[in-house]
């Protein structure tokens, strides 16, 4: 078991095995996305209050969930990188940031499009859920800006890891914002079991689908990150110059 | 068919959400691939390697 993890953390080994996972996750993710979306958009019954507008949930909840998941992955990896000085951990943190930013953007945008017909407004300043989610987008931007501003990779890793960890307090705030304060945003629909199975199942399928697609994108990005970090290593030199067949 | 696509008048909201999501996912994939190519090119340039294979 430990040797498995130890090997996984070795950059050349990770580089070699990642593509198989990227391919599997992509194919499985896309198939599930097609299946879940079809059922969510066309088969699931209409919501009695929100009518067909509720169907935005099938893209909104998965992207919102992953926007926070990406931040958690980034913060936990950053912590592991800081504490155990694990090479791969910082690579994962750096790779998660741009994806997290895109998923946060999607959650905000689809939420806004959903809010327009339901709340009568695209955006409400001061709303706790909306504002804390927007803050997360800026945390991602700050993290990426900080990384790119520092030339020394090790210093960039450390500084950005601290930023990621400080910003992590925002994650529970986003999650509980709808309970702690009054928000336009509706409460937990999924976790509280308020949805009938024919509405809920496509959503669960899409959450899994988006998670797989996110996983594929993340692994793909970590692979580039590993290559960049190991650019002076012999195995990378051999790989780039073609003195050894690409794994 | 068009009734289903109209989403009871909410079609514009639902389809723009779904469309935007798909576009951004494709963009993420394109970015990830581009990043990989750039890193590989940088390493080749740095090693002074001849571009013999993609």
Layout of helices and strands:
The complex is a heterodimer of chains A (247) and B (54).
Chain A: H1 2-8, H2 11-43, H3 57-84, H4 87-119, H5 128-149, H6 153-167, H7 170-180, H8 197-229, H9 234-241
Chain B: H1 2-6, H2 11-47
Brief synopsis:
The complex is a heterodimer of chains A (247) and B (54). Chain A has 247 residues and is mostly helical. Helix content of chain A is 77%, strand content 0%.
| Rg over CA atoms of chain A | 20 Å
Largest protein interface?
A-B, 39 and 34 residues
Pairing-aware structural class of the strands and helices of chain B?
mainly alpha
Spans of chain B of 5+ residues with little confidence (pLDDT < 50)? Answer: 50-54
Structural class of chain A, by secondary structure, is mainly alpha
What integer is the average pLDDT of chain B?
A: 87
Beta-strand content bin of chain A: under 5%
N- and C-termini, Cα separation of chain B: 46 Å
Mean of all residue-level pLDDT scores of chain A: 92
How many strands, which pairing sense, and closed or not: the largest β-sheet of chain A?
none
Brief descriptors of the model:
heterodimer; A: 77% helix; B: 54 residues
Q: Can you describe what's shown?
A:
With 247 residues, chain A is mainly alpha-helical. Chain A contains 9 helices and no strands. The longest helix of chain A is centred in the first third of the chain and has 33 residues, at 11-43. Chain B is mainly α. Helix content of chain B is 78%, strand content 0%.
């Amino acid at each position: 078991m430990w040797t498995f993890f130890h090997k996984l953390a070795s950059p050349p080994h990770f580089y070699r095995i990642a593509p198989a996972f990227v391919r599997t996750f992509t194919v499985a993710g896309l198939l599930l996305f097609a299946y879940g979306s079809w059922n969510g958009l066309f088969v699931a019954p209409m919501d009695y209050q929100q009518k067909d507008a509720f169907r935005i949930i099938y893209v909104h909840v998965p992207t919102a969930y992953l926007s926070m998941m990406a931040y958690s992955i980034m913060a936990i990896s950053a912590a592991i990188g800081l504490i155990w000085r694990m090479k791969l951990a910082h690579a994962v943190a750096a790779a998660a940031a741009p994806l997290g930013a895109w998923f946060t953007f999607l959650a905000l945008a689809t939420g806004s499009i959903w809010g327009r017909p339901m709340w009568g407004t695209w955006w409400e300043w001061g709303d706790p859920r909306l504002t804390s989610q927007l803050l997360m987008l800026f945390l991602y931007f700050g993290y990426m800006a900080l990384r790119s501003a520092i030339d020394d990779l090790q210093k960039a890793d450390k500084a950005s890891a601290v930023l990621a960890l400080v910003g992590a307090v925002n994650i529970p705030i986003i999650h509980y914002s709808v309970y702690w304060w009054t928000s336009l945003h509706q409460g937990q629909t999924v976790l509280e079991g308020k949805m009938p199975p024919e509405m809920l199942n496509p959503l669960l399928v899409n959450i899994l689908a988006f998670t797989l697609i996110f996983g594929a994108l993340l692994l793909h990005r970590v692979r580039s990150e590993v290559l960049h970090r190991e650019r002076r290593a012999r195995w990378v030199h051999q790989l780039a110059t073609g003195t050894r067949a690409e794994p | 068919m068009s009734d289903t696509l109209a989403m009871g008048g909410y079609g514009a909201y639902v389809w723009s959400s779904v469309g935007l999501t798909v576009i951004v996912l494709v963009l993420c994939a394109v970015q990830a691939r581009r990043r990989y190519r750039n890193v590989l090119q940088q390493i080749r340039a740095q090693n002074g390697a001849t571009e013999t294979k993609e």
